Amino acid sequence: MPAVVIVGAQWGDEGKGKATDLLGSRVDYVVKFNGGNNAGHTVVIGDEKYALHLLPSGILSPGCVPVIGNGVVIDLDVLFQEIDGLNARGIDTSQLLVSANAHVIADYNRTLDKVNERFLGSRKIGTTGRGIGPTYADKMNRLGIRIQDLFDEKILRAKVEGALDLKNQILTKIYNRRAVSADEIVETLLGHVERLRPMVADTTLVLEQALKADKTVLLEAGQATLLDVDHGTYPFVTSSSATTGGACTGSGIPPTRVTRVIGIVKAYATRVGEGPFPTELFDEDGERLRTNGGEFGTTTGRPRRCGWYDAPVARYAARINGVTDFVLTKLDVLTGWDQIPVCVAYDVDGERVDEMPMTQTGFHHAKPIYEYFPGWHEDISAAREFSDLPANAQAYVRAVEAISGARISTVGVGPDREQTIVLHDLL
Ligand code: IMP
Predict the structure, then answer these.
(1) Which atom of ligand 1 lies nearest, measured to the CA of 35?
(2) Where does residue 100 rank: exposed (0-12), middle (13-18), buried (19+ CB within 10 A)?
(3) Which parts of the sequence bind substrate (predicted)?
(4) H-helix or E-strand containing 421?
(5) Phi, psi of 51 (to 5 degrees)
(6) Is 41 a catalytic residue?
(7) Which domains does the chain have, with CATH numbers?
(8) What residue owns the CA closest to ligand 1's atom 21?
């Protein structure tokens, strides 16, 4: 049975949460495989709105086992706050599994994330300030603290002291901050152990057994292709692998098991934080997209940068991830324009470039080449069949599909679960 991957095809906030949630009732496991509480999924069910940061969206689907994979970095305070918040609203979280190999975001990494950004000044990344980057850096430096370390106090203490050896020098001598006490860090982490213990599992084994037993496993990416540490607009990226390859590494599910890759792509584009964004709008069209689309960060509340649909970016995401199906989200936000520009290629220093430029300099210089499609003014939020859409909206979807590198299987026309048009089944 299949392992299905869901990835963001742009710079994040494409609406992955809703897509995962839509499939949630039909899958047995939903695995978060990268990132941490830098993510922000908003899921709307009826009158209820849920903002998830760390927990996989599958947590909202009864019968679905939510899994936090080894590729994730976990802020334990946030984990338990999110669980408590959901429990208070009657959502059962008792099925949640957490990989013993996932890394823990220690308090000093949150501090370092913020001071690093300040230190970078105009070269800042615009991180979410949640300690994500420093925790992944520790992982690669082999200085990280893993969930399993919390079950061995001696090891935990040795690792925290090892990590703080250098960090305290940096904090005190370079950043002029107070040194961090290893005892305090260890005590805080140990305080979570009893609550954590029943959730912790060898999740790679659990997932292999699930696939062998013909269960369906959904692998849900945090962030998105253009924020991937390898394939994104480096250095303006997150610190993890947010693409299909990362789904395998971050969960332990081998590539040969992945049968479908669903790319989530918004009918326009947004980005938070710094970094190049060729179709970005600085005029009232951008403001209108932001207001109509509610484009403010779920995690940080920051206003998102907004721009028109960028087809070379979608094609790039299709290529890097092996996208089999696109979910086109928030089409309703484009209602009310007489014509809608779509970026079909770039002008890079006077030359037409049809694909993502090879170099970051090229991407910084890329100016969008637009094609213009006739808009529509009818309210489309009640459309449930493709034929319910006005002719111009149908033509827009078909035109975008033709240049984006994979078929569009679902179209979103509003935030609610029901506000969805299915063209091809996703499972
Ligand atoms: P970090 O992930 O906090 O290190 O931030 C690195 C970059 O990724 C910044 O530009 C963030 O704004 C961006 N980023 C991180 N998570 C998300 C997300 O879930 N949606 C959109 N952008 C994100």
Answers:
(1) 2
(2) middle
(3) 298-304
(4) strand 420-422
(5) -105, 110
(6) yes
(7) 3-99+200-262 (3.40.440.10), 103-194 (1.10.300.10), 265-422 (3.90.170.10)
(8) 12
Burial class (CB in 10 A: 0-12, 13-18, 19+), 338: exposed
Binding-site residues for substrate, in ranges, read: 298-304
Pocket of ligand 1 (CB under 6 A): 11-13, 38-40, 125-128, 130, 132-133, 222-223, 227, 236, 238-239, 272-273
Choosing from 53, 103, 139, 159, the catalytic residue is 139
CB 222 within 8 A of CB 17: no
At position 135, the amino acid (one-letter code) is T
Catalytic residue among 13, 21, 28, 310: 13
Chunked in runs of 10, what are the mean pLDDT values of the chain (427 residues)? 93 90 89 94 82 90 95 97 95 97 97 94 93 98 97 98 96 95 98 97 98 96 97 97 98 97 98 96 98 90 95 98 98 98 98 97 98 98 98 98 97 94 94
pTM across the whole model: 0.95
The residues, any chain, with a CB within 8 Å of residue 190's CB and separated by 6 or more, are 150, 153, 156
Residues 6+ apart with CB under 8 A from 46: 416
